[in-house]
Amino acid sequence: MNRIQEITRLRTAYQSELALGTERFFGPKRTDCPWCGSSRLRTRLRTVDLFQHKPGTFVIDQCRDCSHSFQNPQLTTQGLDFHYRDFYDGLGAGRAEVLFDIMGSRKRYLASARALLPFGTSRRWLDVGTGHGHFPQVASSVHPDTVFDGLDISEDVEEAERHGRIVEAHRGLLTDLAPKLEGTYDTVSMFHYVEHSTDPRRELAAARTVLAPEGHLILEVPDPDCRMSKVLGRWWMGYFQPQHLHLMPLGNLRRELESLGYTVVAVDRREPHIPFDLTGALALALGHYGPPADDPWRAQPQTPFQRWSRAPLFLSAVPFLIGLCCLERLIAPLVSRTRFSNAYRIVARKGAE
Q: Which of 75, 149, 210, 335 is least enclosed by beta carbons within 10 angstroms?
């Protein structure tokens, strides 16, 4: 079955689902901050899905007291299933792989793996939200004596095991599987994972359960204090709506880890920076304002004019995207030293029981 036939088949299923309305994809709107409980909220962002262009409007509110930002109302499990579908797998699998490659995933994975070197050798390492297992595959060259396992809710984690990128696959939610894995791992990594979770605090507590005494948790997340978020607004990649449910300032996440009994041993705002803000913003704008793609969640298929005009538009933009991408990588060492750095890393050690 070719792509056009697959889209035609999926359109029927998507349209039947959308006919029931999208209100059921959202939970109730909160009137207080999920982090500190304050009722002093402001709307930080209102946007649509700029990645897949699935229907819906998404709002990020920010607490005026603790600065925690969160999707409000938040997607339900049913809503998350709808919006994740055909993004990392299915129709979107190829596009997701290209995006990760452009963003320099291998180089970032190596840097992330090396960040643990000052704290000793890990015997067993669990990568949470591992997807296809690309991080463990790369990190094994830095930690050749470490056994890497992976955890994810999708079948991709089982594929990663079949391809030898991880030794053991755990399919499901960390918060559900943690009791069975208690004390098993010396290291748990969560790279751009907790911002996708419905309850980041539960994830951090579950990671502590999985860790052996003196084990390490390594986290990388988007930095909501990045000044580029104000410059680019909804075009800032870090917002990543509708998938990012929580955007946590460094101070909040650090204090939460300490309250759970972790000791923060390293913080870095420079190395985790991803030099893709401007390139990503341009790509999102092209996708939003250009001729629509033939996506099955659109009620009508592409017209012949849209089909034939879309390719030339995006091909003509490729030189600009490549040039902008190269420029961002060139100036990344300077940008990462400023508040325009868009991500941060925390390494925390679990205390002895």
A: 335
What b/e readout covers 130-155, taking b as 16+ CB neighbours within 10 angstroms?
bbbbbbbbbbbebbeebbbbbbbeee
CATH code for the domain in which residue 190 is found: 3.40.50.150
Query: What is the Cα–Cα distance from 97 to 101, expressed in whole angstroms?
Result: 6
Domain containing 148: what range? 95-232+244-273+341-350
Number of domains within the chain: 1
Share of the chain above pLDDT 70, in %: 98
pLDDT of residue 104: 60
Q: What is the pLDDT of residues 43-90, one digit of tens each?
A: 999 999 999 999 999 999 999 999 999 999 999 999 999 999 999 888
Interatomic CA distance for residues 226 and 243, integer angstroms? 19
Confidence of residue 301 (pLDDT cuts 50, 70, 90): confident
Per the document, the length of the chain is 353
CA distances from 148 to 4, 27, 140, 156, 278 (A): 38, 36, 8, 15, 34
Cα–Cα distances (Å) from 149 to 210, 262, 350, in that order, read 12, 22, 19
**pLDDT single digits (tens) 115-128:** 999 999 899 999 99
Instruction: Tell me if 87 is assigned to some domain.
Output: no
Which tokens sit at 326? 């190269």
Q: Identity (one letter) of the amino acid at 92? A: G
Residue 266 located in a structural domain: yes
- Contact present, 345 and 272 (Cβ < 8 Å): yes
Cβ(161)–Cβ(150) under 8 Å? yes
